[in-house]
Amino acid sequence: MGKSNLTRPSEFILLGLSSRPEDQKPLFAVFLPIYLITVIGNVLIILAIHSDTRLQTPMYFFLSILSFVDICYVTVIIPKMLVNLLSETKAISYGECLTQMYFFIAFGNTDSYLLAAMAIDRYVAICYPFHYITIMNHRRCVLLLILSFCIPHLHSLLHILLTNQLIFCSSNVIHHFFCDDQPVLKLSCSSHFVKEITVMTEGLAVIMTPFSCIIISYLRILITVLKIPSAAGKRKAFSTCGSHLTVVTLFYGSISYVYFQPLSNYTVKDRIATIIYTILTPMLNPFIYSLRNKDMKQGLTKLMHWVKCQ
To answer: Model-level pTM greater than 0.90?
Structure first.
């Protein structure tokens, strides 16, 4: 592109993880199986939960929604990435780029709100076991679900509207494998002040709300569990949280590394770190929840047995 300013470039070029031609097919061979494993694994989790009456609880209700969102999350990114790996142009239209960014931000934040809802569920189950059914009733679960979708989508819409106001110049090459907010922002030659203020205020509030819920919930859980006299009782209480804590650590650890730093410091290392929460975490979630959860193992075994009998 020329040096003249363009309010809306016709397309962007996604540089991907590597610009070397010899790396494209090996990368395709790596990420296609990852995508298929992610989709199949999360579909199995959803089917197992909905086919087993023992798994009809709020915790597994939120887990099934999380699996659905994870499928959407990777589908927003990986198919286009796979197409670009086999394409010479690696182009994405301006409209496609903003659409991809919108759903990436929306589903990513929905993931964090669902993780917060699951943390609240564990808090109620461990700290108020005799009132669990009353507190985590159907109405409250639906309310948490609605908030988990509405807040992230409104947050994402605001970011896309602000991005659409930017003026782009000099280059249309995005140094990333999808239209992430920071790499696109680096291409703009207009002022980022409004966008950055929004990120530091509204954006920080949206991100910190579920994270704070998770931290507070687990602090209360820790205090309650430490009061349990028997070691076996403590292990049993902590075992119900192990899978969730593992997923939370993976998700928030990689996000913190990528986004809590100045825009000018965004490098190729951040592209690698982004793979963890955009691609690897959704793939690992079914394994984490099934391998460390006896009820899920039984549910998956029952599902496999039913499939074999058909």
So the answer is: no
